[in-house]
Design a protein that fits this description.
Strand content: 25-35%
Number of domains: 2
Organism: Uruburuella testudinis
Order of helices and strands: HEEEEEEEEE
Number of strands: 9
Protein name: Secreted protein
Distance between the termini: 61 Å
CATH superfamily of the largest domain: Macroglobulin (MG2) domain
CATH class of the largest domain: Mainly Beta
Largest sheet: 9 strands, mixed
């Protein structure tokens, strides 16, 4: 292979890497900031009030290996999309995203949600609740 071809390949690889880094930085900066709620102020099993007066409640019992439901009330009527995803501190849980559906009474619900399985058998989850362009994060323990 000639020296010019090697140089061209090196330049193209560097350009590709630069585009990838710029794209990643843009994506990270475009993500909405999370409002982190303390478990003491927001117990998802008993129900809690999010900023703005929205009320969030999971099923009474949330088990790591059984489906459960989520209900959200008091969401502004202009909101078009609500979904939730789950992670753990210092652990990526893969892609899991559950869409909540607006009900006739104005509440949002998702049924039969399953938590991602933790290979370390941990039960300390974080729920990221995306309401329109806002994200609220709350920790909870599954059984």
């Amino acid at each position: 292979m000639s020296r010019n071809k090697k140089l061209l390949i090196a330049v193209l690889l560097l350009a590709f890497a630069a585009v990838k880094v710029v794209s990643l930085l843009w994506w990270q900066n475009s993500q909405p900031a999370r409002t982190v709620l303390d478990q003491a102020q927001c117990n998802v099993h008993q129900g809690c009030v999010l900023p703005g007066g929205m009320q969030l409640k999971f099923s009474d019992q949330v088990y790591a290996k059984a489906p459960f439901d989520i209900e959200l009330r008091g969401v502004d009527a202009a909101v078009q999309e609500v979904f939730v995803s789950f992670t753990m501190k210092d652990m990526d849980m893969g892609f899991n995203r559950y869409k909540l559906v607006r009900q006739p009474d104005g509440s949002w619900r998702a049924a039969q949600i399953r938590l991602p399985v933790c290979v370390q058998n941990r039960h300390d989850y974080l729920a990221d609740i995306h309401i329109g362009k806002k994200v609220y994060q709350v920790g909870f323990a599954a059984r």
